Amino acid sequence: MKIKPECATCIVRQVVDAVKEISREEEVQFKLIRSTLSCIKEVYGPDAVPAWMGTEVHRYLKKISNNEDPYKRLKDRANKLAMGYLKNIEGELKKYNYKSPLERLKYKVKLAIAGNVIDFGPYSTDVDIDRKLKETLEGELKIDHSREFLQDLKHYDRILYLCDNAGEILFDKILIEELKKYCEVVASVKGGPILNDATLEDARYVGLDKVVKVITTGCDAIGVNLEEASQEFLKEFERADIIVAKGMGNFESLTEYSIDKPVYYIFKAKCPPVAQFVEVNVGDNILLRSPNP
Amino acid sequence: MKIKPECATCIVRQVVDAVKEISREEEVQFKLIRSTLSCIKEVYGPDAVPAWMGTEVHRYLKKISNNEDPYKRLKDRANKLAMGYLKNIEGELKKYNYKSPLERLKYKVKLAIAGNVIDFGPYSTDVDIDRKLKETLEGELKIDHSREFLQDLKHYDRILYLCDNAGEILFDKILIEELKKYCEVVASVKGGPILNDATLEDARYVGLDKVVKVITTGCDAIGVNLEEASQEFLKEFERADIIVAKGMGNFESLTEYSIDKPVYYIFKAKCPPVAQFVEVNVGDNILLRSPNP
After folding, report:
1. In this protein, which residues make up the domain named Damage-control phosphatase ARMT1-like metal-binding (chains A, B) (predicted)?
2. How many Cβ pairs closer than 8 A exist between chain A and B?
3. Could you report the per-residue pLDDT of A120-157, keeping only the tens digit for each?
4. A33 closest CB neighbour out of B5, B15, B34
5. CA A133, CA A81: separation in Å to the nearest integer?
6. Is there a single domain that holds both residue B60 and residue B182?
7. Cβ-Cβ contacts under 8 Å for B238 (sequence gap 6 or more)
8. Cβ contacts (< 8 Å) between A29 and chain B: which residues?
9. For residue A132, what pLDDT is reported?
């Protein structure tokens, strides 16, 4: 999908957030933001893809600030918070062992979305996490292709699961363990730090590598960029029967390609441009099969 | 006061909002936003004053879009909504005729802030307006120099009241009528369209010109810019014993000057940079005397 005019606001907000992680000195912050405005101007336009525009801008910011990983602190924090929170849902999780495969799958898809919804940022508290988790788990999937998903899981053999952010990757792990009951799963994370996207380090921290083979995209592009991806990634992308794409970045970028196999997009529509593209409301939770069943 | 690094987000958001008023065509919107990013880059920096940075950016946008008044529709709507809403508070207003001068003054100051709080935008409803008005009127003034204000009103003769936005100018009129019980009041509006700031047209629409002499700043600067102001404005600014400055734009800009008379700032601290500058929380309502009593 392409950006909308209002995406200008969001990318500038991201830059401000990142710059605040990079330096506490306002003078430095002003300089970095000012310089990045030129970069935004260059990549902003009706043909820009949100995830790729973000990639260019965050790469530029990493370069001019000599900071390879501005979100390091936030990612570490997200991982720790998610791990600490896990025990709170273990009881609930176990209950689902005795429910139907469809109910269990749907619950774990929602859990993976909840991981994407939770703000693991510096001001989040256990109460907030609890509330948001509950809202997502008890709410409906506005687009719900879970029946088709279960059918495809039974019919096919191999899944490539594209992870999204640090922290939430722990919740992805729980869904991936469920998917493994049906298929061989390979998970992929980013090949280098970008935004708060999960890298190998985060995958190892939550123990995802103990559960499935974890590869990287081979680059630090937000979402997927097949032109920049490593041979290893392209091979797994080719071999997989089903692609599971988590989060908005993967959705924004994969929808730019025509893919000859089922892709399951799992995300919360967090902003108007994405929500309008999928024809849902902002805040809706989505398990969308492409091609549409 | 000067801008903070995060003001980049807010000015871009304003540009996006304005551009959506200027054209419905996305291609035009992209072009205008993209071009305005250069202008923002030029005026953005640690020495920028929020209101004046906004002035440069909105002037640039008016120029490149050949649209002299992008907020015309929103201002007209705000005026109409405010006028339509007036009857709902007339009963409450009358009650205050029998209360003490201090209570009455404070109530009308809060009403003027409420006018600044209400979102008269396209999605506001009577219910929202009711709720926000009630919240402001029943809440406290976080900085409350109403006693000093009453004292100064009794002691001095002449007020220059700097208005802020269309719509809310009707609520300013109610406060101005109260101030007239003590002093001669001159009200000023902007000399040309900028943002949703009130101009002569708005003052006339709500009948402010029937109540006091209304002048303009002589220019389309957000807030006050004494270097650009007309002789008429400067004369009234000089003659006044008290300046009453409504809204954040007037606060942001007037604090750049040293003024040898009491200034009363009346506003809601709507964003972190302004709130931090005044040492209050975002959302707090302020009646601040400068110099501090």
Report:
1. 4-286
2. 67
3. 555 556 667 778 888 898 999 999 999 999 999 999 99
4. B5
5. 13
6. no
7. none
8. 5
9. 81
Q: Which tokens belong to A34?
A: 């000012």
Interface predicted TM-score (ipTM): 0.93
The verdict on a CB contact (< 8 Å) between A16 and B8 is yes
Chain B residues touching residue A28 (CB < 8 angstroms)? none
Domain co-membership, B35 together with B103 = no
Name every chain B residue with its beta carbon within 8 A of the beta carbon of A12.
8-9, 12
Q: Which residues of chain B form beta strands (DSSP E)?
A: 143-144, 158-162, 184-189, 213-216, 242-246, 263-268, 285-290
CATH number (domain holding residue B107): 3.40.50.10880
Categorize the per-residue pLDDT at B119 as very low, low, confident or very high, splitting at 50, 70 and 90: low
Are residues B243 and B256 part of one domain? Answer: yes
Q: Name every residue whose Cβ is closer than 8 Å to that of residue A241 and which is 6 or more positions away in sequence.
A: A152, A156, A157, A158, A159, A183, A261, A262
Picking from A253, A123, A139, A232, the residue whose alpha carbon sits closest to that of residue A186 is A232
The predicted model gives B129-135 an average pLDDT of: 82
Q: How far apart are CA A284 and CA A270, in angstroms?
A: 8
CATH code at position B30: 1.10.8
DSSP assignment of A12-57, as one string? Answer: HHHHHHHHHHH-S-HHHHHHHHHHHHHHHHHH-STT--HHHHHHHH
Based on the fold, state whether residues A101 and A53 are members of the same structural domain: no
Domain holding B12, by residue range, is 7-70
DSSP B68: S
Q: What is the dihedral sign for C-alpha A57, A62, A63, A68? A: negative
Residues A147 and A36 in one domain: no
Chain A residues with CB under 8 Å of B15 CB are 8
Q: Which of B201, B193, B202, B203 is nearest to B68 (CA)?
A: B193
- The reply to whether A1 falls in a domain is no
Token reading at B18: 């304005």
pLDDT tens per residue, range B147-198: 999 999 999 999 999 999 999 999 999 999 999 999 999 999 999 999 999 9
* Residue of chain B whose alpha carbon sits nearest to that of A29: B5
Does position B81 have pLDDT exceeding 90, yes or no?
Answer: no
d(Cα A1, Cα A197) in Å, to the nearest integer? Answer: 20
B contact test, residue of A9, A13, A21, A31 with most B CBs within 10 A: A9
